[in-house]
Each structure stands twice: as C-alpha cells, then as structure tokens.
UniProtKB/TrEMBL annotation:
Swiss-Prot/TrEMBL keywords: Toxin-antitoxin system
Pfam family, one: ParE_toxin
Organism: Tolypothrix tenuis PCC 7101
Name by which UniProt lists this protein: Plasmid stabilization system protein
Amino acid sequence: MNYALVFRPEVREELDEAYTWYESQQPGLGDEFLDCVDEILNRICQMPESYAVVYRDIRRAVIQRFPYAVYYRVVSSRVIVIAIFHGRRDPKSWQTRT
C-alpha cells in the first residue's frame, strides 16, 4: 500500500535552505540532495513502519550521502513529514511541531 505524502509548512523552507546551501557549495549538489530526499520519501511511502520511532509516534529515516533525516508520522493512510532536518541541529525545534 502506498501512503499519501503530506508536508508540514516548515519542511518546504528547510528543503529550500538546504538546496540553496548545497548549490552554493557546488553547482548540481543541491539537485543531488533533492534526489536523495525524493528516494527516501518514496521508500517511506512504500513501507513507513520500517523506520524506527525516535520520539513519541515520530519515526526517522536517514538520508544517504547527506547528514539529514526525515522525521514523520503515520496517520491512517498518510505519511505526515514533520521535518527534514540536519543531524547537528537541536531536535527540540522539530519536536515542538507535533
């Protein structure tokens, strides 16, 4: 069963910031970052329960090649993406989004 993907508003801002930063480091790197994000989101939608619960009912899927993780909840047939977050940032800022 594929789940519908829903993004919290903050997630788009986080993706834009990360994309811009990676593109400023090396042209094309931002696109590679977005490809890796897209790949992990597809995996999450196919098997959302396969990733570990890290806080209350929120699960985390680590993005390959980049120090980011996707934090999400599964609610009925939807995957609600809470944050796409750099691994060194304070997790308390995404934990308040639940």
